Amino acid sequence: MGQNVPRLLLATMAVVLSATMLTGCGSIIADHLPTAVGGLPEGGPDRPIKQSNFPAVHDFPTPRASTVLTDAEQKKLEHDLIAARTRTGAAARAGTRDD
């Protein structure tokens, strides 16, 4: 029994490895299989020739044209946001809307 364990482990690892390797080929192989064995149905759409509108994982977006806010712009923005929050809170407590 002790000698069968390494063989069983090796066989299991071989099955798992081959199954893992074949999963990457599944979509390519499925294009060429007959419908009866799991291929694409007759009259099914072809794979798109044009690349998708969504970027690939390794494609980076173009750099932004805008720059970082200066300290004065940051302080003004914070002040404006605090003022808007205060106005909204006061209007909500009064039960009116500030349009």
What is the structure about, briefly put?
The protein is mainly alpha-helical and 99 residues long. Helices cover 52% and strands 0% of the residues. The mean pLDDT is 78.
Write out key terms for the chains shown.
single chain, 99 residues, 2 domains, 3 helices, 0% strand, elongated
Let me know the largest β-sheet.
none
Oligomer: single chain
Number of strands: 0
- Straight-line N-to-C gap: 82 Å
What sort of overall outline do the alpha carbons produce when their principal axes are compared?
elongated
Percent helix: 40-55%
| Tally of individual domains | 2
Low-confidence stretches: none
Structural class: mainly alpha
Average of per-residue pLDDT values: 78
What's the helix-strand series?
HHH
Radius of gyration: 31 Å
Report the portion of residues in β strands: under 5%
Q: Given the structure, what is the number of helices?
A: 3
What does this molecule look like?
- The chain is elongated and about 75 Å long.
- It has helices at residues 4-23, 26-32, 71-94.
- It is built from 3 helices and no strands.
- The protein has 99 residues and is mostly helical.
